[in-house]
Write a structure and sequence with these properties.
Layout lengths: L2 E3 L3 H9 L14 E5 L2 E7 L9 E7 L14 E2 L4 E7 L6 E9 L2 E7 L5 E8 L2
Parallel strand pairs: 1-9
Antiparallel strand pairs: 2-3, 2-9, 3-4, 5-6, 6-7, 7-8, 8-9
Length: 127
């Protein structure tokens, strides 16, 4: 498997937005602007995400894919703060089956495409 770095921090925000109300994470705490390498992603509550997620995560700055919605599915809470779902990679646009964890202001994402291309990265909230 090939592994390349990526930061889908905001996308993970979207993941949490689709979690059931019993989840320990409040969607509003995920709202914000996140940075990964040369990309800036904005997470905000919305009702327009085609996946039905209650959060949108949009690339707002970077070398390409500006305007791309990163959240591609509802996310499932796997175990108190660990979420899984489909996230669009901000650089390639490819969809990754991603496991996300939120620690403080950092969304750590780790996942692979259906073709076996894998990536990992941290999205850091901007203050």
């Amino acid at each position: 498997m090939q592994r390349k770095p990526f930061l889908v921090a905001a996308a993970f925000l979207a993941v949490v937005g689709a979690v059931t109300p019993a989840s320990a994470v409040d969607v509003n705490t995920l709202v914000g602007t996140y940075k990964w390498t040369d990309f800036t992603v904005q997470a905000k509550t919305c009702s327009t995400n085609p996946s039905g997620a209650g959060l949108c995560m949009t690339v707002i700055a970077g070398p390409k894919n500006i305007g791309m919605e990163m959240i591609r599915s509802k996310f499932q809470d796997q175990d108190g703060g660990v979420f899984v779902g489909k996230i669009g990679h901000p650089a390639s646009g490819e969809t990754y089956n991603t496991k996300m964890t939120l620690k403080g202001d950092v969304w750590h994402m780790d996942g692979c495409t259906d073709a076996g291309v894998c990536a990992t990265g941290d999205f850091i909230r901007q203050k």
